[in-house]
Amino acid sequence: xxxxxxxxVELPDxxxxxxxxxxxxxx
Length: 27
Known about the structure:
- The protein has 27 residues and is mainly α.
- It is built from 1 helix and no strands.
- The model has no long low-confidence stretch (mean pLDDT 61).
């Protein structure tokens, strides 16, 4: 999954949405 801030993350589809939100908080 490619997140809005440009970080490419390879995760199972079931985790993509919640993890993407968490990473947005980290960045």
